[in-house]
Amino acid sequence: MMVANGTYAPGTKVEGVMLPPGVYEPVDLWGQFDPPALDLSLMPDNLQAWVQVQAYRMGADPAGLGMAALVACAAAIPDQIKVKVKQHENWTQSARLWAALVGLPSTGKSPIISAAVRPLRKLDDQMFKSWRSEVARWNDTPKDERTSSTPAPQRRLMLQDTTVEAAQGVLEGSPWGVMMLQDELSGFFGAMDKYGGKGGSADRAFWLQSWNGDTYNINRIGRGANQIPNLSISLLGGIQPDPIRKLAADAQDDGLLQRLFPIVLRPKTPGVDEPLQDVDTPYSQLITWLRSQGMPLGLPELVIPFDDGAQAIRQKLERKHFELQSLESVSPKLAAHVGKYDALFPRLCLTYHMIAGGGPVITVDTAYRVSCLLHEFLFRHATVFYSGVLGLSDDHDRLKNIAAYILAHRLDCITNRDVQRGDRAMRKIDNRDIQPLLEQLHTLGWLDDARYTKVGVPPVWIVNPAVHVMFAERGQCEAERRELAKTTIQQALR
């Protein structure tokens, strides 16, 4: 049994062997990371039936349907409605979420997204047709009568295939915020990095700002000066594991990827074609109602605070997120993702609050349910994504090589020299490169504290005895593999 600080309680047995107190459980560096299933009780009450029935009908992962529906609801809520994050600070957030459904084509990413955004797409179609009619009437006006007027700005709720310049035009007339829909996010990210240089950087800066909202000034030769009153975009898309691995490795590390909630989809199962409960009508009505709140434009902002209990939960999570920043020594990208949670928690709370019908304050019950969703579901999916899809660490292969050497030789301590001796690829790296690797193994529970023997000499790291218990079989296989390779080489040289 583990105690609060991550160590084993006194008298704990691992694989039937008693371990001393204070021994940390090591991470399985070769393990398979499975995404957690969605506990429907963590979803807003008004969405539970829709997710459950759609998952059964489509054979799709409820996790993807649940997150896609939350993003669609957040996109429908006008940005005039905000949550006051801190009690004594003028910091507000709108309901603006980004999510990526990660999986192979067989997981059904596109059907999941289509089902979730269908009501929003219908509202957007109506808005687009209305705008086109206004433009047509303006074009039919005699030229001498429209010298003092301009055509109505485009008003939308959704964007798909667009350039930054075209998106700017839409957002000038859509201060409530819009949704960017991408069936394949690889194209969205790839377009920003295709040409590199100033153009790609400018595009990334635009999309980064769209996650934050607020005004956005445009000053271009030929286009003059203009201002977007609220650069606000919710983002929903799908992507396959291989493209996202390449994009994560090649793209600028500016935190754009880390703003997304990654949902790693489970394999699709056969759907059904039978009469089922009508969940589409109430879901569509919910999206329509959310969109109507805060309208028409010109109404003052509605700022909703947390009640005392909800504020206490938020403060507790803020401390927890700060502690999780220690993940940076193992996975900087995961740590950067967690760094967005202080803003994402209130956004989720506002989304849940409005889905439930709104009210003067966000209650402790809402904050508690969102905190469970964030850390029991979304954070675990992020861990699976950054560990299993992108790799546990940027040095994952090196870490596995060192760990295998520890197991094969049953080491109870390890030094820089052991690392260089243990793997051919490591022989040419110097002490400055080795130390961060050993520090990561310490964070992952493979090594205990370092012991310094002389000033200026790299320390001796004590091996966690639990690794030889938990991974004894792997250690035996690794020892046999190394001995076989050694024998084979010797025989070849005779």
Layout of helices and strands:
Elements: E1 13-14, E2 17-18, H1 45-58, H2 62-76, E3 81-84, E4 92-94, E5 98-102, H3 109-140, E6 158-159, H4 164-172, E7 178-182, H5 185-193, H6 197-212, E8 216-220, E9 224-228, E10 233-239, H7 241-250, E11 261-264, H8 280-292, E12 302-305, H9 308-324, H10 332-338, H11 341-355, H12 364-389, H13 396-408, E13 413-414, H14 416-422, H15 431-443, E14 447-451, E15 460-463, H16 466-470, H17 472-492
Parallel strand pairs: 3-12, 5-10, 5-11, 6-7, 7-10
Antiparallel strand pairs: 1-2, 3-4, 8-9, 13-15, 14-15
Helix pairs in contact: 1-2, 2-3, 2-8, 3-8, 9-11, 9-12, 10-12, 11-12, 13-17
Mean pLDDT: 85
Strand order of the largest sheet: 6-7-10-5-11
Major sheet characteristics = 5 strands, parallel
Radius of gyration based on Cα positions: 27 Å
Number of helices: 17
> Which of globular, elongated, flat, extended, rod-shaped describes the shape?
elongated
pLDDT < 50 stretches: 1-23
Strand residue content? 5-15%
**SSE-based structural type:** alpha/beta
What is the CA–CA distance across the termini? 53 Å
**β-strand number:** 15
Q: Helix share of residues?
A: 40-55%
